[in-house]
dolichol kinase
Amino acid sequence: MLTPSSLLNGERAVVLLFVSAILYSTHPSIIIEALAFSLLSVFALFVEISVESYGSINLFKTRPGASSGIFLGAVTLPGLAVSRLIQLSRALLVNEVGTEDVEFIRLQYWATSTSCLCVLVFLCFIFGHESNKAKSVSFNGRHTKFSISSIALFAALCCLSFAAKSSSGAYLALTLFWIVCHGLTAVKFIQHVLNTFPACASFGEALLVTAGFVVYFGDMFAVTIAKISKYLVSYGLSYITYGAKRSEISTIIQGMLLGLLLSPMLFKFILKKWELYMISPNSEVRGHYEHKRSIIFYGSLAFILLAVVPLWMQFVQDFPVHPFLWVFEFVLSEPHKRLSLCVYWVAVIFVSVLRFYKISKNSKIERILLRKYYHLVAVLMFVPALIFQPLFLNLAFGAALGVFLALEIIRVWRIWPLGSIVHQFMNAFTDHRDSDLLIVSHFSLLLGCALPIWMSSGFNDRPLAPFAGILSLGIGDTMASMVGYKYGVLRWSKTGKKTVEGTAAGITSVLAACSALLPLLAATGHMFTQHWLSLLLAVTVSGLLEAYTAQLDNAFIPLVFYSLLCL
């Protein structure tokens, strides 16, 4: 029997506080989106309680030791989109942004929410099928009626939102079709993630990755279609307008990431054909297999990144020169500052990696504390660059993410000669949330710091929003772990390791860092407003989330913190 305490545990209470803060700050112009967000939140909570009361969904093997995280995973990205809509609505009133910027984020919100809703419906269907099959829990008629009612009401709100803004029936139909495609793709993609990487993620983590991937690369596909339609106007077809103006840096990062993700598919296809040739009766003796396999991998990777991806970049962005030459010119446009920053980063990385790797091999220090030292290194590296060279940091984050992704592909595929070396090195810093199949901690730390900065590249009237990842992970999470490990006595729960002392230290340290950072930003000419009440709420909610969640906190905490800072 479900009790009130089991229905509303610590993580769910914090997520409800997050949702309530966003809904309370909603601008009247986005009331429909706020209603849809509240409906999505209720449905996600319903699905999480249903799944966790049953035990699990046997069709998929999720990360051991983690809760389902469905509620948190379903509301994080839609909540972030609503926060951005609230922020842009303020800017629209004073003509700081155009209506196309607001409409682009509105479209992104509905695409994200629909992706999450469709995954929730899929999980609900699987849960109902398994529970009825096992005859342990009945997925009764009230559950079915509630699910159908939620879906119908959400669809009606979506249609109403776009019908109020659109004067063309064809455009409305095309927009709704595009949003539905996001949802169907998300259902297919999360199955691929959970089946390809079993026991590597909870449902909430997989849902966050799924919604992010589908919306991010769906945006890339839409930009391409819109650009193609521009050249087909002369043939009598309508020109499709999509999105707001984007920077060259965002296009380069988007194309590079897609190229890196497509390269294993090309490698697998070529390798399969090559292995068929190798085992044919007329083939020569198979020698140096690993060497030839690595040549195929590096060749396919170079072809994608140097030939295919730059063509797409120039097609959608109209670069005056080759994209790689543009990057070179961009770096050298301020050579002293940017090259000096590169030297500083290389020095910090070299010293920290060398030092911490030796400690991990020769010391009995807790691995969780060793990993937190890298969070402090992130503060040393990123804060100066974010204050004085934010555009260059945007590009650097993309380059670092590309390197991480390439190395992880090399590690997973055991590509000679780096595969085994990278695998051995990365194992020195893994914890219970990583596996031999997929190591995600370094990705989550990098993206946790980078995403708030990338999302603040347009209009931003909150000075601390770009620092959300650096503050919450580099300072708050680090201090909470260190203080809690050394001095923590009072635990938040009987089964958890997080302590009240650690959480208090994390919240206090972030507030202190904000107090020091705001005058520094003001001295550099940044003219923003940041209400201390909203800052206190954002810091407290993100600190409590770190204390209660069993999910990958590097992924969720920065996004929650950023969303609340934008209010």
